[in-house]
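Pipeline run #58 for the internal structure catalog. This entry was flagged by the ingest filter as a single-chain record with no existing model, so it goes straight to prediction. Upstream metadata was stripped on purpose; only the residue string is passed forward. Reviewer on rotation: M.T. Logging verbosity set to normal.
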Amino acid sequence: MRDCLYNVLRVREATEQESRLISTGKFKDSARQNVKLAVKFIINNYNLSDSIIAGSSYLKGNDRVDASGVGQSAVQSLLTIVEYFDAAGVENIKVDSLAGKEKIVIEGLKSVRRDLDEFLDYFPKDDVDAVKARILSENELNYREFDTSLGQIINPNPADKA
């Protein structure tokens, strides 16, 4: 169960990172210039739909169905962001073609986080907190191990480094 929660929490974190990149404009200078592709990575790299289904299977009765529904709503919101962009090839949906779509994307990412938070509420707090602690520990190790000769971390979590 914790592996499923891990993937869900990593997706939640990725939506926060993407929102920060868009809000600050740093995405224009970063390797993640392609917002549509970044959202596809969020969906696929953590197998979000499968993680929602597998995580829900640990629940009983109506909670299983309800959690799965709200979790799949988060998946659908991410897919809607991808579909929102023009039907042109992924390579062509770059930052300069966002043309005011930033607000809609940010609101979509907020919706995903709300759904994921609701999904996580179905699980024992101890399990969710243990996974959050693991992620914080991994992030701290990554931060400390980062080779500053390569430059600065482009998009650190301000809550972690405040």
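catalog note: The two ends are 32 Å apart (CA to CA).
catalog note: The chain has one domain: 2-150.
status: ready for reviewer M.T.
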